[in-house]
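Lecture 7 notes. Example A: sequence first, then its structure tokens.
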Amino acid sequence: MAAWLMQPWILLAGAILLELTGTALLKLSDGFRNPAFGVGALALYGVSFWLLALTLRHIPVGVAYAIWSGIGIFGITLLGRFAFGQSLSWAQGGFIALIVVGVIGLQIVTAQQPAHPPASNHKPGV
């Protein structure tokens, strides 16, 4: 695999894009009445989780999941509005904006933080 593809933030972005596309397909499946869209959604979710798992080698799980889900919430809100004509109140938009601010803050403070803390010689119970 190309070295640039193994960058954790690129993997996370790919996971997010696949999750968004999968969610859009899930909406189009109409409760699995259109099974092709439902199967496509499940396949994209599977690949999305695989990419998310790869990012966890480099990005702490809480941070990676917060960014994955936060951007997913923002992205699917935009898709819902513009692709599916769903409305959004000012309060809903404001709270989603708070999620986006949190995601940006997490990415800024976590840019180079290791996913795994250094090993310790301390043994539990000793």
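Example B, a different protein, same format:
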Amino acid sequence: MDYAARCVRCNKSFTEEELKGASCCPGCGTKDIPCDPKKDASILINVHDLRIMGIWAENYANSVDNKHLDDVNHSSLKELITIITDRIEVQLKAQGLYTPLTLVKELKQLQTEHPGAQLFRDGKEEV
């Protein structure tokens, strides 16, 4: 099938026909800018590189979200980073290379291995 767009949040793909008249994702309703499926790429990158980018992206997204706590129109960037890193982690797991790509996920893994571990960011418990 020839898809015209894929939602960055729900990961559903849509044809031009399905998008006619749409002002948001027909699947989940987000107004985030969709991906162009024709621009999917396969790249060679190290898992450690992805982990660094994921941790920095999550940290930045958290700071942006904190600035928009009272903005009902703000779409959570931290949630979006989690969605994207989840998709990448599934691919890594299929290759036997799984590692958490965000600090929160890494700390959750540590908390499972070491019950009682906690993460606080800006005075609020995060995990």
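Note on Example B: The longest helix spans residues 47-67. The radius of gyration is 17 Å.
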